[in-house]
Amino acid sequence: MGLLGKLVAQIEFKAGGDVFHELFTHRPHHVSTTAPEKVHGCDLHQGEFGKEGSIICWKYTHDGKKRVAKQVVEAIDEEKKSITFKMLEGDLMELYKNFIIKIHIETKGDIDLVTWTLDYEMPNEDVPHPITLLAFFIDLTKDIESHHIGKP
Question: In terms of Cα–Cα distance, which of 104, 120, 101 is closest to 112?
């Protein structure tokens, strides 16, 4: 067994939590239109968007390099506005034994919060924690917000 890790970031999202949840759950192929410099596409490989067990493949740029991530949609909870992706193949799997990304939206008062949780297993201590990937997701969230509320 490798070394387990977890990173969590919670960001206020002013464009509406429902918008964010809908985008990643039912229309992930539209993420590239909201942040084209970061995400270049999301292809459906099996199943259908918005369904558990579906397999999707992201094309994105992280740390200045073009990357891919093939994932299975492991869980969707419409009531709690959460979606969980388990990494199957791609650049992250070259470093990590296991990698799970969970996106959860919660509302506190009038504020919608997007929470990104990265659960991962490193094969050894030489593998870095994915801190730059968490920063990527924070920036992506801000880009999606700006796109939806019309800020430059």
Answer: 104
